[in-house]
# Entry
Amino acid sequence: MYGPDATFLGVPRADLADPASWAGADILIIGAPFDGGTSHRPGARFGPQAIRFTDYLPHDGSRPHLALGVDPLAELKVADAGDIEMPSGETELSLRRLEEAVYQACQGGAVPVILGGDHTIALPDATGVARHAGWGRVSVIHFDAHADTGDTQFGALHGHGTPMRRLIESGAVRGDRFLQIGLRGYWPEPETLDWMASQQMRSFEMAEVTFRGLDECLTEAFAIATDECDGVFLSVDVDVVDPGMAPGTGTPEPGGLTSRELLDAVRRIAMELPLAGIDIVEVAPPFDHAEVTAYLANRVVLEALSGIAWRRRALACDPSRPARNPADPLLMGRGSQPGASPAGRDTGAAG
Ligand SMILES: [Mn+2]
# Structure
């Protein structure tokens, strides 16, 4: 919708209306250039294009991941359906169009990866996935500085402060399978926290994350996310990262995760859990500096795709294509270096 008309790192173009153009795709990239739901600074409508091509490497269809030993762009069939037309003054129409596109992607067998856009789009994103995977059968792991569980925003049902409440209210996803990581700051108010508690949500505030460690919190979240659910929807609001490392966003809240922590967490989620859909939202290029936030969001997508490719290898158990243990020394088994260790803890984590 907002050019230039380029695909994610140059992957093949898909036309949603022409299923043959993306037949067999493992991953379908969908742009959601909508920022009509922002409560403060807009600009995330320019997020999809920034995430697509903010990278210093050639757009040559190859991204060999050092730690995981996979090349997600070569091992997965990744296609880009371009941007959904989401006129800013037509929120419900915009969200309907996006939900339909996400649903189509799922029905075609692809994992949708939606590039936002403000967080309003998580409602159609996770709803589209749930329509395919089963109502209430998909858990949500949600990285964010904010809970996004407001009842209304400026009196409206839709906005980037309310999508998680709408999702739970509709039953598309279960409140007690809704994991939030990175919350902090001064919102929401106690009434909304009471509602979240009544839905049995599990929200990890940054103080808990810092006190216990991110990995321990993730392990707890994973156990909940996989209990009586068939798939996981991952929603990454880039403002979960500290504004010092992700300044290009509309509602920055100091004191967040480092970019390293977010990338590690996303990679681990993709390696260990059955991802059914992903969105990365709230990248607002007009507020970015030196493209710091756009580079990070591009890598969030690649980290997720790499984890998915790694997980497929691990589940295939093909000895000629082992899943590399990222804890091993990088050059292990090359030249005169000692060979790879037997499968480590991560290789067994795919179940
Ligand atoms: Mn958010």
About this structure: The CA atoms of residues 4 and 285 lie 14 Å apart. The pocket of manganese (II) ion is lined by residues 119, 144, 146, 148, 160, 237, 282 (CB under 6 Å). The chain is about 35% helix and 15% strand.
